[in-house]
Amino acid sequence: MIETTINKLQGHVGEDVVIKGWLYNKRSKGKIHFLLIRDGTGIVQCVAVRGNVPDDLLELCDRITQESSLIAAGGVRKDDRAPGGYELELKNVEIIQMAKDYPIALQSHGPDFLLNNRHLWLRSRRQHAIMRVRHATVKAIRDFFDERDFVLIDTPIFTPAACEGTSTLFEVKYFDDKAYLTQSGQLYGEAAAMAHRKIYCFGPTFRAEKSKTRRHLTEFWMVEPEVAFLDLDGVMDLAEEFLEYVVRRVVDTRRQEVETLERDITKLEAVKPPFPRITYTQAVEKLAESGVEMKWGEDFGAPQEAALGGMYDRPVMVHRWPAQTKAFYMKRDPEDERLALGVDVIAPEGYGEIIGGAQREDSLEVLEQRISEHDLPGEAFKWYLDLRRYGTVPHGGFGLGVERTVTWLCGIEHLRESIPFPRMLYRIYP
Ligand code: 4AD
Ligand code: MG
């Protein structure tokens, strides 16, 4: 008999095959036993009818427990009523290991219980679908930049200083000294952009977020393109082309998973350029009109992002922020010194900020002044200032959070399901 996998059953209709996997679920109706077997590539319904199969196989169907590992043999049948469209007429089942008391029942559990069992929870149908959307997202991100001649540059995890503000730094012992886990690869990306023109870094980043929200992780993945001779408008053009590409690729390659998640796919299909571009000041006015008041000069919180995102059917780009809300490295608007040339891209449907980017300050003198205004350790930024000393040029880039993006694409509630093993304020297990 030919060994195959569940995602390839359509090529074996009418043949006998062997599959290796685990018992996902089972039920019986009168003299018919149904085993739902999963093998990592999919789930297939297997049928054993009393009278057609040996009694010891029926007895095994009675005994077999959830998540037992097994080797099953049977005939492949096309059946439109079966989930997935194909069915296996069971001929034999060999148990590899009989699992005892699998803790996750198929009915619902609370989030803490599921997170404590994340190593097992990953096997469930929903989590399986989410991880595949995540993979497709990461692949689309890489392909987008690779196809456009961006060079992948890996930036360090141990860093001597802050990039995104000192309040969320993770300090670690570094021999007799201390270091910080990276908050962003951007500063190193800027160095690499001066060497290669167009680069991206892609890796885990860390923020000691003390808040317990559904949108913050302490460890998350970020992709950060950085481009020489790019101004703020260019950064927004790139972000727009990039997001459309990623969303389209996920819709094209992971439609089945998105449907498993019962996510309204027409909302993703609407993500087409041009994306609206409004200034921070216009955004504050729009928010006030819709009853969400805030003081000019303050950063957006979750309510502002949700309200603004809800006004559009595609991501909205908010640019030119009050400088005090943004990082030290952003260039000021030559037309209005109070503003930083930064942009946040806010996803629709209340998913909030998915991209933060900017045109960078390219003047040595101004940057020196900003570093001291922000009370940052001058010594740790000496190398960064060299980039302005030796051939400085206008440049810019952005960072996209993978988990925020996957959460939006999947239409799920909480970032914790968008990464295999989430790290949060009170969670570092499993
Ligand atoms: O807006 P942020 O802080 O921007 C930067 O780090 C820049 N240095 C990027 C750049 O210009 N190269 O973060 C960028 C994105 C956010 O829009 C969000 O998607 C994600 O990173 N992000 C988080 N995701 C999960 N948990 C957190 N605690 C996050 N903080 C930021
Ligand atoms: Mg931001």
Question: Can you offer a commentary on this structure?
Answer:
This protein is of the alpha+beta class. It has 2 domains: 96 residues, Nucleic acid-binding proteins (OB fold (Dihydrolipoamide Acetyltransferase, E2P)), CATH 2.40.50.140; 300 residues, BirA Bifunctional Protein, domain 2 (2-Layer Sandwich). It contains 13 helices and 18 strands. The strands form 3 sheets. Strands 7, 11, 12, 13, 14, 15, 16, 17 and 18 form a 9-stranded mixed sheet that branches. Strands 2-3-4-6-5 form a 5-stranded mixed beta barrel. Helix 4 crosses helix 6 and helix 4 packs across helix 13. The mean pLDDT is 97. The structure holds 4-amino-1,4-dioxobutan-2-aminium adenosine-5'-monophosphate and magnesium ion. The site of magnesium ion has 3 residues, from strand 17.
Task: Tag the structure with descriptive keywords.
single chain; 430 residues; alpha+beta; OB fold (Dihydrolipoamide Acetyltransferase, E2P); BirA Bifunctional Protein, domain 2; 2 domains; 9-stranded mixed beta sheet; 5-stranded mixed β-barrel; 13 helices; 30% helix; elongated; binds 4-amino-1,4-dioxobutan-2-aminium adenosine-5'-monophosphate; binds magnesium ion
